[in-house]
Amino acid sequence: MHQPKAEIIAVGTELLLGQIANTNAQWISQQLALYGINIYHHTVVGDNLNRVVGAFSDAHSRSDIIIVTGGLGPTEDDLTREAFQQLSKLDMVEHKPSMDKIELFFREHKVVMTPNNRRQARVFTDSIVLDNKVGMAPGMIVSYDNRKWVFLPGVPREMMSLVTNDVLPYLLQLVGNKAIIKSEVLRFIGIGESILEHEIKDIIHGQSNPTIAPLATDSGVIIRLTARADSSEDAIRLIEESKQEILSKIGNFFYGTEQQTLEQQIVDKLRVSNKRLALAESLTGGMATSKLVSVSGASDVLRGGIVCYDPKVKEGVLGVSSKTIAAFGTVSEECAIEMATNVCLVLDADIGISFTGVAGPNESEGKPVGMVYIAVCTRDGHQQVEEFRFQGDRDTIRNRAVLKGLEILFNLLKS
């Protein structure tokens, strides 16, 4: 097959209503891109027969490989098979192994099987039936009019299992892709996507293998490097060369690879340096502590966190001076410094970090929504406090404050 054009159609009104996100298309696109199969279109269509037929007809007119997720269940609004039958005029039959599996499921669970469940076992004549090992409705690969149609369940874990075990091997054989593909994710913090891309634009423009793809995420910016070569060793070498070239320009913002998180790196660095951390959180309400506690082994380095939302708690528990609060308010550099310093003393830690600010929706103490102070103090006398003006709603401001605090901690520990 020539270099194919592929597209993905997700069937389900719940996707259009925003009740669930179309993560299936995102994941499938990521997998196929690793192997040089390009996705040209994403389509979402509701549970309406005429609209699904229309979406299928459009896809058939422009793509070589069409992957459809959803609409294979037992209910009246599961219309994927019916829509494709209208387009293709292919016959459907009941697939006995799938029907046996469905009947066995109901027997084992001692539940009466309603007749509509037989719909899930229907497949197109001469299709390749894909055994759904984690669900009931089988997947299918259908050849029709020089196109390959792949039908998959909408449940993500079922879809992922079929793509990994059946669909990808089939498609790679179909397109004759025998190259070794390797990929690595580089993670950066403290630099925006546009600045990062500007700093390495010469590398991006000069590279075709590996490909370099920057992407902003909730925890910073990532760069995905994807290399294709005749051997695993050559692919790894190409990635390493690009990685070092990128880090020579923006290495100061680099904190990890693949699934490494900022909080994991902080816990690891605290452990290596034999330091103990304590947190005092006002506007973040324990969110930063929760992030760190999510890391396995955090108990080795985390003394604890104090949520001190009320000024009286800042005074009575942390020992923040009433004079400081009266003179400067709780949303101030001075209060943040005392919170960070005192939480070290109260919890017997080497490093203290504090968060105080205005998350909204209204001003507080005459300070605008989004004003945040983050302070870090250490047992040996280091003090650092920074002011930020975050934009967004209440949750966005709090999340950005936590991320910035973790960034400050990481930079302190790596220095």
TrEMBL record:
SUPFAM superfamilies: CinA-like, Molybdenum cofactor biosynthesis proteins
Source organism superkingdom: Bacteria
Residues annotated as domain MoaB/Mog: 7-174
InterPro entries linked: CinA, CinA-like_C, CinA_C, CinA_KH, Competence-induced_CinA, MoaB/Mog-like_dom_sf, MoaB/Mog_dom
Family: Belongs to the CinA family.
Xref: HAMAP family: CinA_B (MF_00226_B)
Protein name, per record: Putative competence-damage inducible protein
Name of the gene encoding the protein in the UniProt record: cinA
